């Protein structure tokens, strides 16, 4: 899927209407010469003509390109249906979506005063420049959705030997896929079934980190038995721990079933990879995923320095 560029627009002051120009130069700080350029997450603004046309019917007049202070006016996609971390790109430039909509300043905004309303807060989007280049009316950009890449590692001597089927790994996949599709996030999964082997686990985690995999789930080896070593293996690979979520899970489920307090599951981040070490039973991974999955998208935003508060 791609979008067509209908107009590129700039202004020298914030909160004012932008004027169409022949072309814009996009750099690591945004649109050269535009008031909104800078080292922040809202370097470039985009608005679809589909949104503008809808507003024209309400306003009863024609809206010019740039009147809503958008840098780039597009055609071919309802931009507000995109998600942060989606990308627009061609052979030269690449933009990463960072925010959908924004706060409207009402009477404090000259656009609002001149036009009487503004569609930008609801249906405009913002992006940062990943790859620099020039853009002009008539150009096209391909739209690529962000796919959440998840690796699942099941540790079990018996399951890896074929003595019984791995059920915990597939359960994590089912729960993650169901939850993330529910918030319009496509996913891709890689599954590993290995024996209780520290070296294999270490190599798989290191590989995932080097590939910048979004999320790694391990299942198994979080108890207090002699073959339970997952936390000790993973913790040295973490740059930051996220203790709160595991503490919550242990207390929440341990209130009813004290055995849940014996799990030593940990969570953390290394590079751009979130890592969660879960127990080995289907029931336990179901309980853990119920608490973890609602935090994953926001955690990824934090890692990518996107302010989504």
Annotation keywords:
7-stranded mixed β-barrel; alpha+beta; M1 Pyruvate Kinase, Domain 3; 2 domains; 30% helix; 309 residues; single chain; Molybdenum Cofactor Biosythetic Enzyme, Chain A; 6-stranded mixed sheet
Q: Secondary-structure blueprint of this entry?
A:
Elements: E1 2-10, E2 19-21, E3 23-27, E4 30-31, E5 44-48, H1 49-59, E6 72-75, E7 87-89, E8 94-100, H2 110-115, H3 120-123, E9 125-131, E10 133-136, E11 140-144, E12 148-155, H4 157-160, H5 168-182, E13 187-194, H6 198-210, E14 215-219, H7 230-234, E15 240-241, H8 243-254, E16 267-270, E17 273-278, H9 282-303
Parallel strand pairs: 5-6, 12-13, 12-14, 14-17
Antiparallel strand pairs: 1-2, 1-6, 1-11, 3-4, 3-10, 5-9, 7-8, 7-11, 8-9, 15-16, 16-17
Helix pairs in contact: 5-9, 8-9
What can be said about this structure in brief?
30% of the residues lie in helices and 28% in strands. With 309 residues, the protein is α+β, with helices and mostly antiparallel strands. A 7-stranded mixed β-barrel has the order 1-6-5-9-8-7-11. A 6-stranded mixed sheet has the order 13-12-14-17-16-15, sandwiched between helices.
């Amino acid at each position: 899927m791609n979008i067509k560029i209908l107009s590129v627009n700039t202004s020298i002051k914030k909160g004012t209407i932008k004027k169409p120009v022949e072309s814009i130069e996009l750099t690591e700080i945004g649109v050269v010469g535009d008031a909104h350029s800078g080292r922040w997450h809202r370097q470039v603004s985009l608005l679809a003509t589909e949104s503008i046309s809808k507003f024209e019917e309400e306003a009863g007049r024609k809206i010019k390109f740039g009147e809503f202070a958008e840098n780039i006016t597009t055609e071919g996609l309802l931009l507000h249906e995109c998600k942060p971390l989606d990308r627009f790109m061609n052979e030269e430039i690449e933009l990463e979506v960072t925010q959908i909509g924004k706060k409207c300043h009402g009477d404090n905004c000259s656009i609002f005063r001149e036009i009487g309303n503004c569609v930008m807060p609801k249906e405009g989007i913002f992006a940062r420049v990943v790859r620099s280049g020039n853009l002009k009316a008539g150009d096209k950009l391909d739209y690529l959705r962000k796919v959440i890449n998840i690796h699942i590692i099941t540790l079990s001597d018996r399951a890896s030997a074929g003595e019984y089927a791995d059920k915990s790994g597939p359960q994590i996949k089912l729960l993650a896929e169901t939850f993330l599709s529910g918030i319009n996030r496509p996913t891709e999964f890689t599954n590993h079934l290995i024996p209780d082997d520290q070296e294999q686990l270490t190599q798989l985690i290191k590989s995932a980190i080097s590939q910048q995999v979004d999320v790694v789930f391990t299942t198994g080896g979080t108890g207090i038995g002699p073959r339970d070593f997952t936390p000790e293996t993973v913790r040295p690979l973490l740059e930051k721990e996220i203790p709160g979520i595991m503490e919550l899970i242990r207390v929440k489920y341990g209130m009813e079933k004290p055995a849940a307090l014996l799990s030593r599951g940990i969570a953390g981040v290394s590079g751009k990879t979130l890592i969660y070490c879960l127990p080995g039973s289907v029931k336990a991974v179901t309980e853990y995923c119920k608490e973890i999955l609602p935090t994953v998208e926001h955690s990824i935003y934090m890692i990518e320095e996107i302010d989504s508060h």
